[in-house]
Amino acid sequence: MPAGLKSLRQYLKVVDIVLEVADARLPSSSRYPGLETILGSRARILVLTRIDLAEPAATTRWLDVFRAGGTPAVAVNARTGEGMRALRQQLAGIAKEKKEKLARKGLRARPLRIMVLGIPNVGKSSLLNRLAGRGAARTGDRPGITRGPQWIRIEGDMELLDTPGVLWSHWHEPGTALWLGAIGCVPEGILPVTDIANLVVEFLLAKAPELLRTRYGITEQEAAGANLLAAIGRRRGYLLPGGIIDQEKTAQALVKDFREGYLGRFTLELP
């Protein structure tokens, strides 16, 4: 368990429920392993974000699996608001139960306190801003935007605790790390972008080769070649002095296209 995650234990004492945020493209690998250890019996809702970039049928399968395993789960697009109604309804139901429980004990009602957890850049701040209905938290397309825990009041008598994303100690397992890098959850510069790009190319060649050819204007012969990344760089004109193809610039462009959905919607692991 990462030290940063352990430090959040102090806040668990004062929250009623945890929103665990994960990316719908990697519904399992973008979650904290062993989170149950620190949550204990604390209520939790798993929120899969960026459903506009994942395969709809796969997202439905994942939701069914999580719910069957006893974990309440919803899928949202925090940018457009899709799926947010279901999440708000669940939170309102929990807030009502909490209020009634306090009333039975003769205690005064207080806002429902919600903690938002997730690894870097899975969309926590965008989700929080959508719940708050304003730009309450900084957002960005890179990890590490949230620097420290912050409380934010939202409508419906609720309070949200936004927390910085923390990667776990085994995140650098090669396969997992590269896929997390492909969707932008690993800080830039830690992993070789050409390795990430080659993984993405290999995946797309197997899954949707026509998308690669269409996006970059490459031929079937080039797509079948040994160095597809070089072919893409040549087509895009990413050249260094002497006409050498700039593979790093090519890789960065391809990975950016993949992250932003220009190469299609994909779920990178299935239940």
How would you characterize this protein structure?
- There is one protein chain.
- 42% of the residues lie in helices and 14% in strands.
- The protein has twelve helices and eight strands.
- The chain has helices spanning 3-6, 9-12, 35-39, 56-68, 84-104, 124-132, 174-182, 193-207, 209-216, 220-223, 228-236, 247-259, and strands at residues 17-23, 43-49, 73-75, 112-117, 150-154, 158-162, 239-240, 244-245.
- α4 links the parallel β2 and β3.
- α8 crosses α9, α8 (193-207) packs across α12 (247-259) and α11 packs across α12 (247-259).
- Mean pLDDT is 86; it is low at 139-145.
Summarize the entry for a quick read.
The protein is 42% helix and 14% strand. By secondary structure, the chain is an alpha/beta fold. The strands form two sheets. The protein has a six-stranded mixed beta sheet. The chain has a two-stranded antiparallel ribbon with strand order 7-8.
Task: Provide the β-strand percentage band.
Answer: 5-15%
Structural class, from secondary structure content?
alpha/beta
Work out the helix count: 12
Which consecutive residue ranges, at least 5 long each, have pLDDT under 50?
A: 139-145
End-to-end distance, in Å?
24 Å
Helix content: 40-55%
Shape: elongated
- Average the pLDDT over all residues and give the rounded result: 86
The total strand number stands at: 8
Q: How would you write the strand order of the largest sheet?
A: 3-2-1-4-6-5
Q: How large, in whole angstroms, is the Cα Rg?
A: 21 Å
Largest sheet, in brief, is: 6 strands, mixed
Order of helices and strands: HHEHEHEHEHEEHHHHHEEH
